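Contributing: when you submit paired examples, paste them exactly as shown. First protein:
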Amino acid sequence: MLLAIDVGNTNTVLGLFDGDTLTRSWRVTTNASSTADEIALTFRGLLDGGSEVSGIALCSTVPAVLREMRSMLSHYYAEVPTVIVEPGTKTGVPILTDNPKEVGADRIVNTLAAHHLYGGPSIVVDFGTSTNLDVVSASGEFLGGALAPGIEISLEALSSRAAQLRKVELVKPRSVIGKNTVEALQSGAIYGFAGQVDGLVSRIVEEIGEPTAVIATGGLAPVVIGESTTITHHEPDLTLIGLRLVFAKNLD
């Protein structure tokens, strides 16, 4: 069984693969202060101590957690073949940006998975701590993209700076025209971010100049995809699938 681990700024997602099939997945809060022993304890609890892990694939956007992950893997899974996605790891994804080393590992992994599943060109819209739009060429190259503040951190910033505004549940309001503060905030968040994504996607597709698949992923994708007019696919496990593909490439 392959254990795929995607460490994000807000959440860490784990998936257990039996061959090509994702059999189980979990989402836990990322804690940058967790020690290697605490991470191991969490993992063993989720795996029930009984799942036989024969391989591990990992990507992380949080340096402090990556450091503890390395320590945890060396102590608790020393005999298990492990692939960590970082500069020098074989991914098969050419990175056509000014500075390839600054591109997050999750964005490269998503590019690989998107091209594997849907071909190209394509756009991956990752709704997480930030909203990432990553552009994949017809031949599977990472071309670049656009980054914007995520939905939750935008609402948190608004509530912290405006005394009469507060955090709200991210659900669709009764109408676009909010009749109270909660509905107004929900309208601005859900319809506003859907419009932001649609606007960016439209401009990117115009620049690409040919039909383009648009794949939504990330923990907050379900909040927005129903209101978007440009998203064509929803793949919540895109990063985990990409990690499985990277693991296979590095064990050939």
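Second protein:
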Amino acid sequence: MLEYKNKLADYLAQKDKSELQRPEEPPMLMLIIPANTSATGLFQILNDNNGIGLIFETEGDTLAQSFKSEHGNYSDGLRKSWHHEPISYNRRKNREYVELKQPKVSALLSGTPQQVAALIPNPENGLFSRFMFYYMNIKPVWQNVFARTDEQTSPSVWQ
């Protein structure tokens, strides 16, 4: 990417571009894809990665918020990629047509039950069945990290 940016800067600095060819932007290789992305952004990254990607977020509502945005709902793409079905899109600008023949996407999200409900409000569109849920049914207990016991090292050791 650095080489491309340098070549692009040189190209743009030239006054007579008639004999020059604009450098081609390299693919954006990115294994871990942020959930906060547009649908086309996700599909472009997958295209650059030969259809492979991971979505990893510590807050499940990041993906839920993306789905609510105007261009961010790629729920259909996640459902298709679960079965490795082709995903295709077409854009009028530059007559761009892209087809991902066998996309392979995995998502790992953490969050609360309410965040899951925001992400998947009902099971009707099929997204619910593409996720595996692990619920940690534990009783939260406050542990005061500043409480001292006789077994702890004296603070004078750290001074």
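If you have annotations for the second protein, write them as plain sentences, like these:
The CA atoms of residues 4 and 24 lie 7 Å apart.
The chain has a mean pLDDT of 88.
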